[in-house]
TrEMBL record:
Chain ranges of the Histidine kinase domain: 301-529
Pfam family name, one: PAS_3
Keyword match Metal-binding: no
Catalyzed reaction equations: ATP + protein L-histidine = ADP + protein N-phospho-L-histidine
Name used for this protein in its record: histidine kinase
InterPro entries reported in the protein's UniProt record: HATPase_C_sf, HATPase_dom, His_kinase_dom, HisK_dim/P_dom, HisK_dim/P_sf, PAC, PAS, PAS-assoc_C
This enzyme's EC code(s): 2.7.13.3
Any GO molecular function: phosphorelay sensor kinase activity
Length: 533
């Protein structure tokens, strides 16, 4: 659209009188969209040819719209927006610039964000604002990018608040270290009190607990001297409010080709709560260990002391039966038999309790033992039972591990004896012992195991009566029985002892079974004891 000759609004010592065509030529070569609005006519009297590049409209399109782009403006309250815009134009003072952003529909239908700066170009005869020149640019992509940055910054700030951490950055030739808002908060400082977000190294070191300062400084020097890529250290600070905090600092160091440090980007995290929980956990573990030791000592002493009077009950019961059998009569003999049987059961229970309490006591030295030899010895011990049951024991190739021989013998003895006990009527028992190296998925699937160590997966399975899957955990509980004493003998301590043995060897045991479908006991044992701790 052509521009009439335009007088200059204010005097200028470097003033250059130009004709309208010359001014128009200057506007046309501007990279921005230039348009001039006549306030009296309420329409544009000039718009540069950048309108087609930016908005897609030709001069003919604009003339058909009445010399105005109002019809393609996008605003929820368009009339109010237009009225307020003209009011701002009319109120502009000499040398003043008004800035505003609006949305407009491109000819292709897309919505573009336009940022415009307006200034008075000429005044009318009454001295009122007449022609208003606007210089506009398409900021759609810039706004999207800006919003994306704001969103990311918001997410970073929220993350720092949630995880009680903050980031920092140092670059060569910068005057200080740039902190994030989260790091200021971590130090008990108000971020708004530091507009440039830059602090000195000495400022940060002033928060470090004096006893930790030399260690932190020496570590920093070592990182620089050795040109390490990473930086990680833990130390304490006293924040601005006087609170003691435990921090973990991690950073990435960037060195130039000349070997000089050029940039460091790091994170500081508040681990005070973790440290507090850890100390409390350690305190409780110490107390629990002492309590367990006291209980084990009590169980051991009590069980040991109970054996002597129990031996006397059994001995006198047998003497009564042998010497006064005829005088006792049928009823008396029945009572003596019941008493003696109960004493024998009590003796078995005490023996198992002693075994259970001894598991935690490392009475043997750790040594490398062949589990295959252990199982063969167990089979020899159970030879009579195996023959009586007509049982078949199948042994896979078993590994050599570091453990206590007696404990391993007790473990396999209890498991195999358990399989021989809970058999189906008229069905010959088949017990299978297998082992293989556990894979990483299996190890990671058990919280009690160390994923960085080597474990063997050992299983003892049978074709016996099995058990309900819901009892898979209960059967390891001390004194728990799934069957009556009249059906299957035992004290209910066998599997509890197995679990304690496995766990004292830094392993894990579990049971699987179904009624009538047999049972399988799977346990994991480390190759070396010290590696699993």
């Amino acid at each position: 659209m052509p521009l009439a000759e335009v007088p200059v609004a204010a005097p200028n010592p470097f003033r250059l009188d130009l004709a309208g065509k010359q001014v128009e030529r200057l506007f046309q070569i501007s990279p921005d969209l230039v348009y001039i609005i006549d306030l009296n006519l309420r329409q544009m009297v000039f718009i540069s040819n950048r309108v087609q590049d930016i908005l897609g409209y030709t001069y003919d399109d604009i003339q058909q719209m009445g010399g105005s782009l109002i019809s393609v403006l996008v605003h929820p309250d368009l009339n109010r927006f237009v009225a307020e815009t003209y009011q701002r134009f009319a109120a502009l003072k000499e040398g003043e610039t008004a800035k505003f952003t609006f949305e407009i529909r491109h000819k292709n239908g897309s919505i573009r964000s336009i940022r415009s700066r307006a200034t008075v170009l000429t005044y009318d005869e009454q001295g009122k604002n007449h022609l208003i020149m606007n210089v506009a640019e398409d900021v759609t992509d810039a706004l999207v990018h800006e919003m994306d940055l704001q969103k990311k910054q918001y997410q970073i700030n929220e993350t720092e608040v949630i995880f009680k951490c903050g980031s920092w950055e140092w670059q060569k030739n910068e005057k200080g270290i740039r902190w994030s808002e989260g790091l200021f908060r971590l130090m008990g400082l108000a971020p708004e009190a530091y507009p440039d977000k830059c602090v000195t190294r000495a400022f940060f070191e002033s928060f470090i607990v004096p006893e930790d300062l030399a260690r932190v400084q020496n570590y920093s020097k070592a990182v620089l001297a050795e040109k390490r890529d990473t930086f990680q250290i833990e130390h304490r600070i006293i924040d601005a409010a006087g609170n003691l905090k435990y921090l973990t600092l991690r950073a990435r160091c960037h060195f130039g080709e000349d070997g000089r440090l050029e940039r460091v980007i790091g994170v500081a995290a508040d681990r005070t709560e973790i440290e507090t929980y850890q100390k409390e956990l350690e305190r409780r573990l110490v107390a629990l260990k002492k309590s367990n030791q006291d209980l084990e000592q009590f169980a051991y002493v009590a069980s040991h002391d109970l054996q002597e009077p129990l031996r006397k009950i059994i001995a006198f019961g047998e003497r009564l039966d042998k010497k006064y059998k005829e005088e006792l009569g049928t009823e008396g003999q029945f009572f003596v038999e019941r008493m003696t049987n109960a004493a024998y059961r009590m003796n078995g229970l005490i023996e198992d309790l002693l075994t259970y309490s001894r598991v935690s006591r490392q009475t043997e030295s750790l040594t490398f033992i062949s589990l295959e030899e252990v199982v063969k010895n167990v089979i020899e011990d159970l030879e009579v039972k195996i023959q009586d049951k007509n049982a078949t024991i199948s042994i896979d190739k078993l590994p050599t591990i570091e453990a206590q021989p007696v404990q391993m013998h007790q473990l396999f003895l209890n498991l195999i004896e358990n399989a021989l006990k809970f058999t189906k009527p008229s069905v010959a028992p088949v017990v299978t012992v297998k082992a293989r190296k556990a894979n990483i998925q299996e190890i990671k699937g058990v919280m009690q195991l160390n994923p960085h160590e080597t474990y063997y997966r050992v299983s003892v399975s049978d074709n016996g009566i099995g058990f309900e899957p819901e009892y898979a955990e209960r059967i390891f509980t001390i004194f728990q029985r799934l069957h009556g004493r009249s059906e299957y003998e035992g004290t209910g301590l066998g599997l509890a002892i197995c679990r304690k043995i496995v766990e004292s060897n830094h392993g894990y045991i579990e049971a699987h079974g179904k009624v009538g479908g047999g049972a399988e006991f799977i346990f994991y044992l480390p190759h070396r004891q010290h590696e699993a701790r």
